[in-house]
Amino acid sequence: MQPSKVRWGELEEDDGEDLDFLLPPKQVIGPNENGIKKVVEFKFNDDGNKVKITTTSRVRKLANALLSKRAVERRSWPKFGDAVHEDVGSRLTMVSTEEILLERPRAPGTKQEDNKGSLDPLAQGGAVLMVCRSCGKKGDHWTSRCPYKDLSQPTDTFVDKPTTDSNAATGVTKGAYVPPSMRGGTTERSSGSDMRRRNEENSVRVTNLSEDTREPDLLELFRPFGNVSRVYVAIDQKTGTSRGFGFVNFVSREDGERAINKLNGYGYDNLILRVEWAAPRAN
DNA sequence: GATGAGCGG
User: Residues annotated as region Disordered (predicted)?
Assistant: First the structure.
């Protein structure tokens, strides 16, 4: 009988024939209670004769070999948990289905001033991940979707509006980062988040696009009317083809207005474009 | 005729 597969690691390095497969398999006997182990194997010697080799060795006892003193000590501990009714020293391994609750010391809603009078179960659980940074409402909405964003006070604790030289002279804002929108000391500017949100919403819907109109094409078409903050062409996820409509967002509403007036009804790629203000996105 | 994906501290 020839072995069907020989792993390369088992191949003989010299060029002599490997006839080991003709030999009886290696036998291991023991170890017995005295730790005596016997290994019986067969080999061909240099003359090509079959020889039997018996190796006898003593193995150290398991506890000495593998267990530390502390580990041996632990075996005499009383059982606990699901194993509480087991005898000491028995059943060294046991799978437990006991539920372990982990403490989260800094979980949202744990701060004293946050919790006072709160009967909101969401606030009690400590499992709420969604906490609006703008209004502080928990489990309701993300900061970017805060319905109270426009009402909330600007965080003047973080950013002092520099009034050109007065603050610099007193050194109050020395080294503090001031975002570009807050530079220049004008108090007339409306709050930054407010403006940015409006810019995102100057959304123009373009329909009756040919199937091979892509976003770069749309940008090229609308770019002459003003700064475009986003172009989007709806793609059918199944087929990967255009669904024939898209959106273009303008930084300023006036530019969007002009684009609508000029491009609505415009012939593009053998089709008549329809261009108008987009309805606010559903959800 | 037609109204978008993903992103979480």
Answer: 157-204
Distance A201 CA to B2 C1' (A): 20
- Measured from Cα to the C1' atom, the residue closest to B2 is A207
Q: Which nucleotide is closest to the Cα of A246 by its C1'?
A: B4
What CATH superfamily classification does A202-277 receive? Answer: RRM (RNA recognition motif) domain (3.30.70.330)
Task: List CB contacts of A98: < 8 A, sequence separation 6 or more.
Answer: A81, A82
Does the CB of A232 fall within 7 Å of any strand B atom?
yes
Distance of A281 CA from B1 C1′ (whole Å) = 18
pLDDT string in tens for chain A (283-residue length) = 344 444 444 444 444 456 666 777 778 777 766 556 778 877 778 777 777 777 777 655 544 445 566 677 777 877 877 788 888 877 767 777 766 555 544 444 433 333 333 334 344 444 567 888 888 888 888 887 777 776 645 444 333 333 333 333 333 444 555 545 455 433 333 444 444 445 678 999 999 999 999 999 999 999 999 999 999 999 998 899 999 999 999 999 999 999 999 999 999 999 999 999 999 887 6
